[in-house]
Amino acid sequence: MDTNSSTIRTAAPREPYKHHPPAFKRAIVEESLRPGASVARIAREHGINANQVFLWRKTYREAMLEEASPLLLPVTIKQDVTATQLRAEQASGLLLIESGHLRLRIEGRPDPETLRVVLAELRRS
Hints:
The longest helix is centred in the last third of the chain and has 13 residues, at 112-124. The radius of gyration is 25 Å and the shape is elongated. The chain is mainly alpha-helical. 43% of the residues lie in helices and 10% in strands.
């Protein structure tokens, strides 16, 4: 079998991955969510693949496109709890979240993913 080395093609070297800051991703996503916006056009204007924008939109909807800073919520510790009440609450796994006029009481062991979504929504409001 005759091979000609001049016809062998090699792939161009791959560019390093671009790491965009969360604020940039959020701005692109919010621009793409405007009525009549074209994801392909927005991606092309910013030099990004449209599939990347769709991935960022998905993570944005799941409230995962956030800054890397920790989420801090105000916490109030009840001082008037008796030892018996405290043991009962610890055994049952009680979590009470109050924010404005919202009051959420979770008994037992909450699903971590559900709790993450609830806390992300509270942070938005």
